[in-house]
Each structure stands twice: as C-alpha cells, then as structure tokens.
Amino acid sequence: MRGWLSCSALLLILAGPVLAQSGVACVTCHEEGKKIQGSTHASVECATCHPRHENFPHPAGVPKPQCAQCHSQVAAENARGVHGEAKSAGNAAAPDCAMCHGGAHSTLRPSSQQFRQAVPETCGMCHANEAGQFRASVHGKALAAGNSSAPICTDCHGEHSIIAPRQRASLVNPEHIRETCGRCHGDVRLSRKFGLPADRVISFDASFHGMAARSGSQAAANCASCHGYHNILPSSDPKSTISAKNLPATCGKCHPGAGTSFALGSVHLMAGGKEPVGVRWVRLIYLILIPAVIGLMLLHNIADWFRKVYRLRIRPVAASRAARPPELRMYTWERVQHLLLLTSFAVLVWTGFALKYPDQFWARPLLVWETYFPVRATIHRIAGAIMIVVSLLHLVTLAASRKLRGHWFEMWPRFRDVSQAVLNFMYLLGLRAEKPRLSSHGYVEKAEYWAVVWGTFVMGLTGLMLWGVNYTLAWLPKSWLDIATALHFYEAVLATLAILVWHFYFVIFDPEVYPMDTAWLNGQGVREREPHDS
Question: At what angle do helices 478-498 and 443-467 cross, to 10 degrees?
C-alpha cells in the first residue's frame, strides 16, 4: 500500500506540468479550481495567470497576477477614470477590479443578468444615496423585475472610463445627456417592446431646449434637468419631478413663476401628435395659406415677366409720349426706415432659421461661440428690437409729418384695388386682351405694405412672448406659448418667401426696372408709369 502511494505521488509530480495546464491538478488542492468553472474565466488555463505554479511544491515569492496582464485596454481606461485617478492619488479605498467584479475565480460575465442586477448594489457600496434613488426609480424597478434591457449605472456613466460629469467627455455631461438617454429612448425596437413613447428624442430635438442643446448650449435644459438623474419616476407618481404638482418647481428652476397661474402642459410636442388644439389650427391654416399665397405670387410674376419681356425685348414699341421727370416714390424718412427694416429683416431671417435649423451649413458661422455665448439668440433679439423701434418710428413720423401722412394715405386699400388686381391678373394670363389702368400705388405696392404691417405685428407680438418666456409662462397657459412659437415660425416662412418671390421681383427682376429699382436709394423710381389716378 505504501509503495502504491509513493508511485502515485511520483507520477503526479512528473505529470504536474501537463495536468496544471488543464487545471485538473489544481482542483485537487485549490477550491478556486471549482469556483472558476462558473465564472467568465472558465476557459482560461490556471497557468495563464499563475506562472511557475506547475512546479510542486509551488515556489515561494511568486507575485500575484495583475488583471492588466490580459485586460490592458480596460486597465488603461480605468486609470483615466475617476476611480483610477483616486487610486493614483493615494486613496486606498478607491475601487479596484476585484471590488466591482469580485475575485478572479468567481467573476461573472458582465452581460449576464445576474451580474447586471448586482451592479447597483456594487456601486451602492460607495454611492449609497444614489443607489437608493435608483432602486426606487422606473429603471431600478424594471431591473428588479428581471428586465434585462433596463439601464444600470454603467450604461449611463460608463464602465471603466467613468469620468466626472463636469468634464465634457463624460457620458452624463449636459452636452451628452441627450445621446446617453437616446440610446434607449430613441431605439424603436425597445420602444415597441416595452410600450415606451417612440417620439421622446425627436420631440425633444424639435423643442427650444433641444435646438439649443444641439448647438452646444450648456445652459439649455436636457432630459435630466426635468426628469432627474437617479430618481426618475413616472409622471403619475406624486414624488416625480414631472408630476403635475411638481412641474412648477421643476420648470421654475429656469423659469421662475412658470405654472403658478395655469397648469403646464406637455413639453414633448410632435406635429400631428399630442399638441394643443391652437397649434394644430395654426399649422393647418398656414399649410394651406403659404402654398396658396406664394403659388399665386409665382404665377402672377412669371406671367408678368413673360408679358414684359415680350413687350420690351422681343417686340419693343417706341414710346410716343413725351419724356417725364422721374417720379418721387420714397421720401428721405421713408428710405431711412426702409433701410433699417431691410437690415433687421435680413438678420432676423438668418439668425431665426439658424435657431430652428442649427445643423445647416449656413448656420455654422453663428455657432462658433455658441458654447460660451448665445450668439444667435442675442443677435436675433437685437434685430427684433430694431424692427419694433422702426415700426414705432414709422407711427411717430406719420403723426408728425403731414407730407408723410399724405403719402401714406395713398397706400390705403380701396375697392378698386381688388378689381384692378383681378383684371390685371386676367390680362397677364391671356384671359383679357387689354391691360387695365393701374393706380400709381396699386395692388402690388399695397399688398406689400400691408403684408409688412401684418407680419411685423404678428412677429413682434409672438417674438416678445418668446423673448419674455418667464413672464409668458407665469401669466398665461403654456399652450399660448406653443401657439406663439408656431405662429412665429410659420409667419417667418411666409414672410421670407413673400419677400423673395414678390418684393425681390418688382425691385430687382422686373424687366421694367432691371437690374434694380433705385427708389429705395435715391427716392426716384425708374419704372415708367402712365399718369393714372393715385
């Protein structure tokens, strides 16, 4: 018997190097050999992490293996993160690999549900308050219910390269919150699977907050500003930051007084979806009005252009009437006001659409300093203030000058303007042989002038509501602000297209004045007008 044992021991010593490679020999003495079979390192040979242990007895003084031997990239990421930096600074309590993953022989696969469910508890060893809030949140409850897709700490903060939120590279920095939340809430597959609203990211991007955030604004509200960070609760929960009773406090962090007089409505609005009735009506009216008005303008001007090109260029007729001196069309004060209005309007169009579409190439020059200063909004408001001042100046000059009032009365609409417009349109389309007599200040000029008056009133009023958003939300329902936003945008589209199609044609592209009607520069029109009634 003794001889058999001696032979067995000798064979074990001789076969040690081979058996140790497969871990068979290790199991006879080390319990870790059994634990490792259920871990993520089950396929790793013992000798990979424990060199020179194939010798029996094991040599003394062999250093313990480091995770970085195999996981060099992960180790480098961890060193750059807050935990690695704390460790390098001498904080012995800073978490290391074993604290989060457990021992090398028992660590689980990070993708396993068992590991994911343990992450909040692991992080909670140091971040107890945050872990407690997470467990009570919608995400924590979903995780506890076995939902493998529920987000955990590492999904939002990162796994090894966890960076402080104040640093721009952090996944939870305000600059990246939208992308971090959007990985789940912008995923159509997940939205369908769990019945989540599929438009949350899209509707946020379309909102004022979303457009400002996309442009680099650090001050704009993001998902976490309203929904919270770890304590995210459904709006039906009284403790939720977005519950009806808590919305005034949540929105009031940026907009003092918001929701104190009237209940605040939904922030996530989508065209054709959940939105105030007034917004739906504004959109419907303008989606009919814009194509109709601009379409008629295009048809009118194209027909007018062909008629005049044929008369002036193809078959010109020598003028029989005596030459008359140029007609004075604009007085000095009118030209000054026009120049101010022209400048402010051009700036308003550029900055306004740059606010709405910050990703377009023509908006990029305004975004260079947007991270540090709201360039677009500031310039837009200055231009808006100039436009309002010009409007008030127009009223003051009319009240102070009889000559300007007399000129203004020529722009007053009359019934004959309608008949002249209809008859001239018929002539341009070939439905009438003779061109009608047109007033010196006819439907073309009057349509332009009163469109500017209407547009200035609408844009000024809604612009002031948007500019003074805190006062608007404090004294009016949020739906009024949504209606003002829709009106401001669609009226801007209509006004811009009308200027391009109607005004630019009669000032620049009209064959009678080409290359330009200089009345806005020197007051004298170049268009030859017959001595019609005013």
Answer: 150
- DSSP secondary structure of 204-264: HHHSHHHHHHHTT-SSS--HHHHH-SS----TTSTTSTTSTTTHHHHHHTTSTTTTSSS--
Each of the 534 residues of the chain gets a pLDDT tens digit; together they read 445 444 444 444 444 444 444 455 677 787 777 778 778 888 888 877 777 666 777 777 777 778 888 888 988 888 888 998 888 888 888 888 888 888 888 888 888 888 888 899 999 999 999 999 999 999 999 999 988 889 999 999 998 889 999 898 899 998 899 999 999 999 989 888 888 888 888 889 888 888 888 777 778 899 999 999 899 999 899 999 999 889 889 999 999 988 887 778 788 877 766 788 999 999 999 999 999 999 999 999 999 999 999 988 887 765 545 556 778 899 999 999 999 999 999 999 999 999 999 889 999 999 988 888 899 999 999 999 999 999 999 999 999 999 999 999 999 999 999 999 999 999 999 999 999 998 889 999 999 999 999 999 999 999 999 999 999 999 999 999 999 999 999 999 999 999 999 999 999 999 999 999 999 999 998 887 655 444
Residue 47 structure tokens: 């000798």
Q: Is the dihedral of CA 315, 327, 503, 421 positive or negative?
A: negative
489 alpha-carbon distance from chain centroid: 15
The rounded distance, in Å, linking the Cα atoms of 40 and 33 is 13
Beta-carbon contacts of residue 14 (< 8 Å; ≥ 6 apart): none
Residue recorded with tokens 């480098």 = 76
Domain ranges across the chain: 2-65, 108-252, 277-315+331-518
Q: What is the rounded (10 degree) CA torsion for 49, 53, 59, 63?
A: 0
Tell me the C-alpha distance between 16 and 54, whole Å.
Answer: 6
List the beta bridge partners of residue 328: 524
Compute the distance between CA of residue 397 and CA of residue 374 in angstroms, rounded to an integer. Answer: 34
Q: Judge contact between 425 and 300, C-beta under 8 A.
A: yes
Structure token pair of residue 258: 């918001």
| DSSP for residue 423 | H
**Would you give the DSSP letter of residue 437?**
P
In angstroms, rounded to a whole number, what is the distance separating the alpha carbons of residues 383 and 388? 9
What's the rounded Cα separation, in Å, for the pair 192 and 184?
11
The CATH superfamily label for domain 277-315+331-518 reads Transmembrane di-heme cytochromes, Chain C (1.20.950.20)
C-alpha separations of 206 from 267, 341, 357 in Å? 10, 29, 9
The contacts found for 500-509 with CB under 8 angstroms, 24 or more apart, are: 501/294, 501/297, 501/298, 501/301, 502/297, 502/301, 502/447, 502/448, 503/448, 505/301, 505/304, 505/305, 506/444, 506/448, 509/301, 509/305
Report pTM: 0.80
Gap between the Cα atoms of 23 and 500, Å rounded: 81
